Amino acid sequence: xxxxxxxxxxxxxxxxxxxxxxxxxxxxxxxxxxxxxxxxxxxxxxxxxxxxxxxxxxxxxxxxxxxxxxxxxxxxxxxxxxxxxxxxxxxxxxxxxxxxxxxxxxxxxxxxxxxxxxxxxxxxxxxxxxxxxxxxxxxxxxxxxxxxxxxxxxxxxxxxxxxxxxxxxxxxxxxxxxxxxxxxxxxxxxxxxxxxxxxxxxxxxxxxxxxxxxxxxxxxxxxxxxxxxxxxxxxxxxxxxxxxxxxxxxxxxxxxxxxxxxxxxxxxxxxxxxxxxxxxxxxxxxxxxxxxxxxxxxxxxxxxxxxxxxxxxxxxxxxxxxxxxxxxxxxxxxxxxxxxxxxxxxxxxxxxxxxxxxxxxxxxxxxxxxxxxxxxxxxxxxxxxxxxxxxxxxxxxxxxxxxxxxxxxxxxxxxxxxxxxxxxxxxxxxxxxxxxxxxxxxxxxxxxxxxxxxxxxxxxxxxxxxxxxxxxxxxxxxxxxxxxxxxxxxxxxxxxxxxxxxxxxxxxxxxxxxxxxxxxxxxxxxxxxxxxxxxxxxxxxxxxxxxxxxxxxxxxxxxxxxxxxxxxxxxxxxxxxxxxxxxxxxxxxxxxxxxxxxxxxxxxxxxxxxxxxxxxxxxxxxxxxxxxxxxxxxxxxxxxxxxxxxxxxxxxxxxxxxxxxxxxxxxxxxxxxxxxxxxxxxxxxxxxxxxxxxxxxxxxxxxxxxxxxxxxxxxxxxxxxxxxxxxxxxxxxxxxxxxxxxxxxxxxxxxxxxxxxxxxxxxxxxxxxxxxxxxxxxxxxxxxxxxxxxxxxxxxxxxxxxxxxxxxxxxxxxxxxxxxxx
Length: 822
What we know:
Blueprint: E1 2-6, H1 11-25, E2 33-36, E3 41-44, E4 62-64, E5 93-100, E6 110-115, E7 122-126, E8 129-134, E9 141-144, E10 155-162, E11 181-186, E12 189-190, E13 197-203, E14 207-218, E15 224-234, E16 237-248, E17 253-263, E18 276-284, E19 287-296, E20 301-304, E21 308-311, E22 314-315, E23 318-323, H2 336-349, E24 353-356, H3 363-372, E25 375-379, E26 391-394, E27 397-400, H4 407-425, E28 431-438, H5 449-462, E29 467-471, H6 482-485, E30 490-494, H7 498-507, E31 512-519, H8 534-543, H9 548-555, H10 562-572, E32 577-583, H11 615-624, E33 630-633, E34 645-652, E35 656-661, E36 664-670, E37 679-684, E38 689-696, E39 699-707, E40 714-718, E41 723-725, E42 731-739, E43 752-759, E44 761-767, E45 781-783, E46 788-795, E47 800-807, E48 814-821
Parallel strand pairs: 23-24, 23-32, 24-25, 25-28, 28-29, 29-30, 30-31, 31-32, 41-48
Antiparallel strand pairs: 1-16, 2-11, 3-4, 3-5, 5-10, 6-9, 6-11, 7-8, 7-10, 12-14, 13-14, 14-17, 15-16, 15-18, 18-19, 20-21, 21-22, 26-27, 33-34, 34-37, 35-36, 35-38, 38-39, 40-42, 42-46, 43-45, 43-47, 44-46, 47-48
């Protein structure tokens, strides 16, 4: 192999060289193609085996665009076998078909299809021929279709899915081809999927080395001579370039390793998520025949038993949340904008890290984390060989119901799924550690040791980032196997308490540690729900609980999520603990504990299902951000509590906070910024106004006022951005709030709001964050829940103006205009 390496000295020359080379070799039809395969699928909510036949008539089936999740359409029913774990939504079997052509001039090409995820038990057929089966619904997979492709007539791709075994998970999963599909056309000398691997083994302010490893494979029987051109680009400009001459034997492959030097590199971090692109072009006789590219970030990750986690030499605490993969009212078929908005709201809370609990997320999710600077604990399994029997509430009592998820597939599929998981995701700079499991029963004993070692070895053979495992038991003083805990590079502590951390320091003083999961500082009541007297009784009567057990469970975290406050307090000043991931960052469908029917979504998070912050959100803002803030609660429309004492709570990142009632000071309280504190006052309720003023070093830095609101009078809307792309997939989330005539939020308002659109957009989802609502997410109206509701609109492919209107009988309407551009 002859090698030519060009330094980055003359970047202008490199840029021109690359552009001229690219133009000269891209004018032929040999360039590889990646074709978006999301549109034009035929769908039926049945298992139709006859549809495997390419001549089957599917004209009566529904035409859908993927990503597609049909479970989210409902209806909610207590009779659905998904039970409370799956949000009482329907599941079952379904069939998808797509008809397409591959032109005759591609007959010497290879044809692949890539699915980023299909839930679940997918079987893929091309022109009646089975090409693959994948039981896990979260994993990405690719199949070679070449030998079955018709280059002179139509081709039919058929996918059958089976999500009928229920409850099928501990949370809502969705059902369908719910992530992107891509058709890939390559030459017979090509770079295989996921074979391009990029690392940055040497980093300084002046210079960084980018190492690219990739495989070139040929299916020609005769030997091939090709040229591999490897480029590193920043903002479209080539900053490093290498060229290798490669000789391949017939039907062979060769691994190529390239080192490229980057001068004055821009380092990737949460504050500056600078990205580079590494691109490999394969040329034969000057013609481009193969191409693969990936993005990377140049950053130095540090893991230290005393100082915890660092990036580029700077110690940083992972202020993390656990997330599930779905997107609230849209179910599991989420869009790029859904993910962006989730992360934007979390970032404003002070969050800088996400744990993908407890399964692979979409490629798009990790792409956006790369772009926004989020740190990711990338997790793959929720169970190994033992079926989980999670606690569920039924008729007011705790019961355990086994889930039919993955345990029966683990022995056969775990190694393959884990390998593909790492190969797909290892180039993402956002990924800072891997997790091989969550609360695995076999890790309670030494039985888990050989399994953990096998899985960890797979990761270590593919990547150099450390591995953890969310171990169960710490929070209940029932310690997992010490031998099992030692298998991980970083010990993962689920629900550990201060005494557990002290114990770990004694028995494993040199161990790295992170809190993989802990309670959040949020009550179990739905957003802005404050219950006193008769209202509290009515709440529990509605649930018809026959036992006080679940009732007590909720009351343990009423208003203040004490366990979550303590969980942060336990690690804030422990430098050796890398951080924490709260359960959860965002409410999600299913896993409705501590409730049962009619609850259909969780209530653990400081953010509700629609993205509206709860009070706990502001606790984390007070602890995790520096922007001056103060928050007080409850609201001040507490009818029936006149003359009675009510506890008012405050969160702030100032050092002092003062509470006023109707202009009269109720006293100042200190806030130790080196500790974890919140403030409270016992206040005699009467309609009027509360005002909190936060101070730092004696200076006023933030205020918050809550007034007793009058009757509902108008609707206010809030949108994060009004410029949409005319691509049939860009979204706008329109948050609606009901105000009185003076602009005060009416905290208990439940008015029915109608939505209408004029222009190039469609309404695709609605919600309000009410954990107990069974109204459809696909509607043209929504009742407000505690003053708020949400509408989600999607652009069309046509550019133009869009006008959205929210209206309700007796209220002043709200209108917002959007601009949709190509």
